[in-house]
Design a protein that fits this description.
This protein has 363 residues and is of the alpha/beta class. Helices cover 44% and strands 15% of the residues. It is built from ten helices and eight strands. An eight-stranded mixed β-sheet has the order 1-2-4-3-5-6-7-8, sandwiched between helices. Strand 1 and strand 2 form a beta hairpin. The radius of gyration is 22 Å and the shape is globular.
Length: 363
């Protein structure tokens, strides 16, 4: 019995199976296991193929046992192929969203090459990272600034807030490929973190997000940014903060948010709160008429925050917002699809480029 090959089949098979199905129980744990196969299925196919060739060369796949193992390997490979097709479909969904809003998708040659060869975040040498910079006294109140080393003129400002359910996370994990991409195009990109549970509650999270926005508005020019254009974005809990700040941007003393981008966000009420809460912790209870342009992106296989949350925010904004609301639902995408420079996230970045160009004069 080829124990090593059997272990390989079990590991790749579990990851593949979790990525293929929608599961509701234990989603906050299992999505982590599903994510690699969901975003990088081609690497799983290569690993499985090489392992199978090695087992074959060593004579481990002979007889009835070998035939059974080959059949199992074939089924796993087929599952990875399904995941690959789902990932590649994301670009078509993004292009469909663009066309629905009157934007013609650009033809990008070799768009598939980077995710195929090196699907991981990589900061070009042309960019600098300054940080951590503290916008408050707490160790969690910090941010990083990304910009071109030799920027010729001030660029618009992009501020991003990480996810983690308000109890975990950091500002050097998700969406790095997006931050590097925009910084390379001349943006001043800020990635901020904030105080977490159980040492902080909703009021502290929201205060930190607003304080980081204020810091960006007041200090971005020192780092090559033009705060006249300020875009806010976030993933998961960061998407929740983004929606809240964007929908209260017209309150006195608040920095102006010119556009909002929410990736696989949670949009319900904060832990243990109800309709009598103050301040309001769900964007679904805020007036959408003052919303800036919104771009909401979510995966239809998200087991941590079901896609119904994104649909609810889109419907809420679409019914009352004066500004444009973009929405893209990615087939087969799990939570945290922005961790890798995958085909799916590269397609999302292409959509973000078009969204920013459509709504901001300086993008």
């Amino acid at each position: 019995m080829p124990i090593g090959y059997l272990v390989t089949l079990c590991i790749v098979g579990v990851f593949t199976g979790l990525a293929l199905i929608r599961f509701r129980r234990f989603g906050h744990v299992l999505f982590v296991l599903a994510l690699p196969a969901s975003e990088l299925p081609h690497l799983g196919m290569v690993f499985l193929g090489l392992s199978t060739l090695l087992a074959w060369a060593q004579g481990d796949l002979t007889g009835a046992t070998g035939s059974v193992l080959l059949i199992i390997a074939g089924l796993i490979f087929a599952g990875l192929a399904v995941l690959l097709l789902r990932a590649l479909r994301a670009r078509g969904v993004i292009h469909q969203t663009l066309r629905a809003h009157g934007v013609k998708p650009l033809r990008r040659r070799a768009w598939w090459l980077r995710p195929l060869v090196f699907p991981f975040p990589w900061r070009p040498r042309s960019l600098t990272r300054t940080g951590p910079i503290f916008y408050g006294d707490d160790p969690r109140q910090r941010l990083d600034v990304y910009r071109l080393r030799k920027a010729e003129q001030p660029g618009p400002v992009f501020i991003y807030f990480h996810g983690g359910g308000y109890f975990s996370g950091g500002n050097r994990r998700e969406a790095r490929t997006l931050l590097y991409h925009l910084a390379a195009r001349g943006w001043t990109c800020i990635s901020a973190t904030y105080r977490l549970r159980p040492h902080a509650g909703f009021e502290e999270h929201l205060a930190d997000a607003r304080a980081a926005l204020q810091w960006a508005h007041d200090n971005a020019d020192v780092h090559g940014g033009n705060p006249e254009t300020l875009v806010m974005a976030g993933s998961s809990a960061g998407g929740h903060l983004t929606a809240l700040c964007a929908l209260t941007r017209q309150e006195p003393g608040r920095p102006q948010v010119d556009a909002a981008i929410c990736l696989y966000g949670y949009y319900g009420r904060y832990y243990g709160r109800d309709e009598h809460e103050s301040p309001i912790s769900t964007p679904l209870a805020l007036d959408p008429s003052c919303a800036p342009p919104f771009y909401i992106v979510h995966g239809d296989h998200d087991s941590y925050v079901p896609v119904a949350a994104a649909r609810a925010l889109h419907d809420h904004l679409a019914q009352g917002a004066d500004q444009d609301v973009w929405y893209a639902e990615l087939p087969g995408a799990q939570h945290a699809f922005d961790v890798y420079a995958s085909w799916r996230f590269i397609a999302v970045i292409e959509g973000i480029d078009a969204f920013l160009k459509q709504h901001l004069s300086h993008a």
